[in-house]
């Protein structure tokens, strides 16, 4: 809950910029842009009363983003986007050392998400590398199909399971832009704040919390490009 309150504070801080009057010198800037983004973050949708078999993992995804952005004023941007991601998991073996039935488990997850993001410029380094705070709310709908195969001397029996669920994620952090051309900009972000608002946040399973600090840093990065329209 404390982490969620921090996230809300950042949203309100960024949102307050919307009410400011646009600078006359900024009025001629292009207001709209489109972009493509990638992330190292691994999100995890939790299905209610999940019955996924074996040791396979379901609900994980690392999305690819496309978005449309609008410059609210000289310092604040609002983005709405569409994201897609997924994962596969596989495991096989025997239930015990004395079991004669061989099991094979397989799962495929597909997720569609709708991120809404606010950016607020903090300062500019040499005016070419604006550093900004960023915060995102992202509803994500996932579907996982799992297959279990039981192989005996008499043959193989296959069972299928389909699970669906919706979780809402919050992320926040910092980034910087770098100009590639008059219309094209690249960006890089680090998002140390990550929270599943409607699902679990397992230390052993989510957000690389069990890993080293360098690994956690690496799994909090995002990159992309924006093109001014």
What does this structure look like?
- The protein has 229 residues and is mainly β.
- It has a single domain (2-18, 31-228), classed as Porin (Beta Barrel), CATH 2.40.160.
- The protein is 9% helix and 57% strand.
- The two termini are 39 Å apart.
SSE map:
Blueprint: H1 2-15, E1 32-39, E2 43-44, E3 60-61, E4 64-71, E5 76-94, E6 102-113, E7 116-125, E8 129-152, E9 155-179, E10 184-196, H2 213-218, E11 221-228
Antiparallel strand pairs: 1-4, 1-11, 2-3, 4-5, 5-6, 5-7, 6-8, 7-8, 8-9, 9-10, 10-11
Index terms:
9-stranded antiparallel β-sheet; two-stranded antiparallel sheet; mainly beta; single chain; Porin; disordered N terminus
As for the CATH topology, it is Porin
Structural class: mainly beta
Portion of residues within helices? under 10%
Low-pLDDT parts are 1-8, 10-27
Alpha plus pi helix count: 2
Question: How far do the termini sit from each other?
Answer: 39 Å
What share of residues are in beta strands? Answer: over 45%
Using the 3D structure, state the CATH architecture: Beta Barrel
Please indicate the count of domains.
1
Mean pLDDT: 86
Output the CATH class name: Mainly Beta
- Assembly type of the chains comes to single chain
**CA gyration radius, whole angstroms:** 22 Å
